[in-house]
Design goal:
Layout: H1 3-8, H2 10-24, H3 30-36, H4 39-42, H5 45-67, H6 71-74, E1 79-80, E2 84-87, E3 106-107, H7 111-118, H8 124-149, E4 153-159, H9 165-175, E5 201-208, E6 211-217, H10 218-231, E7 237-240, H11 253-263, H12 292-300, H13 309-320, E8 324-328, H14 333-342, E9 352-356, H15 362-371
Parallel strand pairs: 1-3, 8-9
Antiparallel strand pairs: 2-8, 4-6, 4-7, 5-6
Helix pairs in contact: 2-5, 2-8, 5-7, 5-8, 7-8, 8-11, 11-12, 13-14
Length: 382
């Protein structure tokens, strides 16, 4: 994850990893886990989430320090999905971006914390500390719920044809018991209280026009799939994800409460609202945060609410004419999800969707941004 970057840009990456280790004070240090494993320890929620966030921010630091890439000069809208970074075309007479303020960083799940750093809402030490605390609590939530119920938890992606997504979402909503009622979601000990046929399942993500993710009791997810096929007229392709925890479901309520307690204490989580670099799109609302108070509230709810990623992408694309999108972080999932919506060359074939997951990607991404820098001038914007 960090090895190739450390070899290519040793000064920047070593300093960033040293800072990361000094913040977290883990034994062994997080940088050692990332570099040497063991894999079983690195993939634990409490380690994997800060590791992914730290790597994403490290890549941003390489852009800034080794290439002189100032986010405030080049980035007006940022969405993070592992994370994902969006760059719009230059403003034009037809482009709403010519009238700031305009939206900026957003995050797909964990990526929201990297976005908060990129947008100068939270300092890196603050965001990393909260990320680690939340991850520890999320891991505890799953362990406690499993011990109390014997349930096997996980997440399952459903893939369908784009025209069928709305109907599939409506059918799922009809079969699921609402969150927060006496359905067994209230406490780990009550996860299997009497109720409708499908309980202990939540809609975790709506990722694209053809993909959503369910989280919760895997047996109940299978029961839901049977219901959808027999009575709902839907037969989506189901793919179990590697996650062994029901992220973005009410099982994570204690983690959301902990995060809220931290974020609502300004001394523990100072937010640089007046000094933020640009507005930021929320996972929960799929719209920019309207105030510092709303940011603190919505970010804290992120681990129990549905990630409205597809809606965020559509809104930014259609309302603000974004045509250049750069994924920044380990993996290419975020980049691919955007590419499915806007096309890998942008909506009009005049932009691009790029990924920065390894040091070999940097030259191509910066070249692509330079080649498309002038698009939108002279009234050609979206």
């Amino acid at each position: 994850m960090t090895g190739p970057w450390l070899a290519a840009f040793p000064r920047t990456c070593a300093a960033h990893l040293e800072l990361t280790d000094s913040i977290l004070q883990l034994s062994p240090p997080l940088s050692t886990l990332i570099a040497s494993g063991p894999s079983a320890a690195l993939t634990l929620t409490e380690n994997a989430q800060p590791a992914i966030m730290a790597t994403s921010v490290m890549i941003l630091r390489v852009l800034e320090q080794d290439f002189g890439f100032r986010l405030a000069d080049h980035i007006d809208i940022t969405l993070y999905a592992s994370p994902l970074l969006l760059v719009p075309p230059l403003p034009s007479s037809k482009n709403p971006l010519s009238n700031p303020p305009f939206p900026s960083p957003s995050g797909h799940s964990l990526g929201e914390f990297a976005a908060l750093v990129a947008g100068n809402y939270l300092s890196y030490p603050t965001a990393l500390t909260i990320c680690r605390q939340r991850a520890l609590s999320m891991a505890d939530c799953t362990r406690l719920a499993t011990a109390a119920t014997g349930t096997t938890y996980g997440m399952v992606a459903l893939v369908c044809e784009p025209p069928r997504l709305a109907g599939l979402l409506a059918a799922i909503d009809a079969f699921l018991l609402p969150r927060g009622v006496a359905s067994g979601w209230d406490t780990p000990a009550g996860l299997h209280a009497d109720g409708p046929a499908i309980h202990s399942v939540a809609l975790a993500n709506v990722n694209s026009r053809s993909q959503l993710v369910l989280a919760g009791d895997l047996a109940q997810i299978q029961a839901l799939l049977v219901q959808l096929r027999q009575f709902g007229g839907h037969d989506p392709r189901a793919v179990r994800l590697r996650a062994d925890a029901p992220f973005h479901s009410p099982v994570m309520a204690p983690a959301a409460a902990l995060t809220r307690d931290v974020l609502l204490a300004p001394a523990r989580a100072p937010v640089n609202w007046p000094a933020r670099a640009f507005p930021m799109v929320s996972n929960v609302s799929a719209r920019p945060f309207a105030s510092e108070a709303q940011l603190r509230e919505l970010v804290s709810r992120g681990c129990v609410e549905t990630v409205r990623w597809w809606e965020s992408i559509r809104w930014v694309d259609r309302e603000f004419g974004v045509r250049r999108w750069v994924g920044c972080g380990p993996g290419v999932v975020g980049r691919n999800l955007v590419g499915k919506e806007v096309g890998m060359r942008g909506r009009e074939g005049e932009g691009g969707v790029w990924g920065l997951s390894g040091p070999g990607d940097v030259e191509g991404v910066l070249r692509g941004l330079e080649e498309t820098e002038g698009w939108g001038e002279g009234g050609g914007g979206g």
